């Protein structure tokens, strides 16, 4: 059992980030939930998770496309909780278009949120982890950090980039009891993915089960979605002392996608 730590999970009011927040809180860690909105329901969500698991949980608004807000998120967490021991870089967006028609502002936003934000949060958190003599950096990459698909050039570039960043940081910090790893999920059934199913059913004139199997899970050999609970459980394990020697690597949770 690892002692109680403080964790920031970026982009955690939905989907995979929320699953990780639940898993870390269930493991007894205090957590900071984050997104770019500042609604009552965001703060209520943090309060609910805190009560459910008997830990401190706070919602801090910060837009991960803005470097200074990435760094302020870390600073505000440290001033409130006294430390930042676990940093999960999860915030991410997607846009699908051919490379010659890819909107420049979408390219810039994907690189900023999916890649550059992690540089800023890690740079701000590492001095705190060094001082504490312990740390866990977990970057949520993707099967697209290891493989490409057409029409996702910005996303694939950002996710390959974060895999490289993860490894470089691991080597820099290897003797400090700070690990840096990337989780590479395949298709996870998050609200974002769920919302695409009706459109896909219309486009392909297929029922829900067929569209999931033939279109969405085409590359996922198990033909099943990964769950947010499965990603959360892996992140929680990476935060234990038993995971101290898992460092600078990618952990695929993709039903066999990248076995090909
Ligand atoms: P999601 O849309 O449910 O969650 C994305 C989260 O990021 C949300 O909480 C959103 O509010 C937040 N976010 C978006 N822009 C932000 C910004 N500018 N600042 C702060 N927060 C912001 O999507 P998800 O599927 O849970 O994706 C989470 C991560 O997992 C992403 O990095 C994504 O690339 C990755 N991923 C998802 C899948 C999948 O199949 N769902 C597969 C592989 C990797």
From TrEMBL:
It comes from the Bacteria. PROSITE patterns: ADH_SHORT. GO terms for biological process: monocarboxylic acid metabolic process. One of its GO terms (molecular function) is 3-hydroxybutyrate dehydrogenase activity. InterPro entries: 3-OHbutyrate_DH, NAD(P)-bd_dom_sf, Sc_DH/Rdtase_CS, SDR, SDR_fam. Gene3D superfamilies: NAD(P)-binding Rossmann-like Domain. NCBIfam families: PHB_DH, PRK12429.1. PANTHER family: 3-OXOACYL-(ACYL-CARRIER-PROTEIN) REDUCTASE (PTHR42879), 3-OXOACYL-[ACYL-CARRIER-PROTEIN] REDUCTASE FABG (PTHR42879:SF2). Belongs to the short-chain dehydrogenases/reductases (SDR) family. This is 3-hydroxybutyrate dehydrogenase. It comes from Paramesorhizobium deserti.
